Write the structure tokens for this entry.
Amino acid sequence: MEGQRMQFDLIFNGTEIIFLAVKPQYAQEAIQTLFQGVQQWTGKCLVSIMVGITIEQLKQMLKRVNSALSYLHIIRTMPNTPLLVGEGCTVFCSSPGTPPDAIETVKAILSVNGLCEEVDEKLMNPIGALSGSGPAYVYQMIEALSDGGVKLGIPRPLAIKLAAKTLIGGAKMVLETGKHPGQLKDEVCSPGGSTIAGISAMERQGVRFGLISAVEAANSRSAEIAKENSQQGASLTGDIRQGDQ
């Protein structure tokens, strides 16, 4: 571990922007291990990819290791997994005083594989619940739609392909036409037709409310994670200090 920290010190001292991407429950331990020996922090920017951890909480984690580290510029990000195929959604916010050139550099990096938007930090957890967790909701929708197709006799591979492509096409219609999703839905629903019958069945089963509730539940859990991580960070720091005595 000592060798890894020395290697990190060399990397940190030789760059202006550092990305920290660990599970939030391991954030304080990672910071304690990696940043303990860092001496050159002036003008450097730390980019966080950790759900539920605010800029202020991250500053406190850094401060527990070395009070001077709390002066690092911080950019907090929330990407999602479709970055892997060039269709990601990433939002970010930054600590006051972060240099514009650092912000532009990070935004350029994050924009390579999809959409990237700067937002107010108060929106980070809600956006994480929407677009960060959203791919899982979409996968479940694709699976459910394909199950419906299989039930009606469509082969599974074709049903999955059709369901996935339908969601891609629908999303592209929303983004490229600029029309409200409700308007596009109405354009598909003929009076007394099969589509409105399907929509009616979805409403009876509470699909719309289920999706809204999923976003709310994910947002609530993010807040809980942030609270747990803050408590764990303080506890870990206390344990380490006792061990040093």
Q: What stands out?
A: The chain has ten helices and five strands.
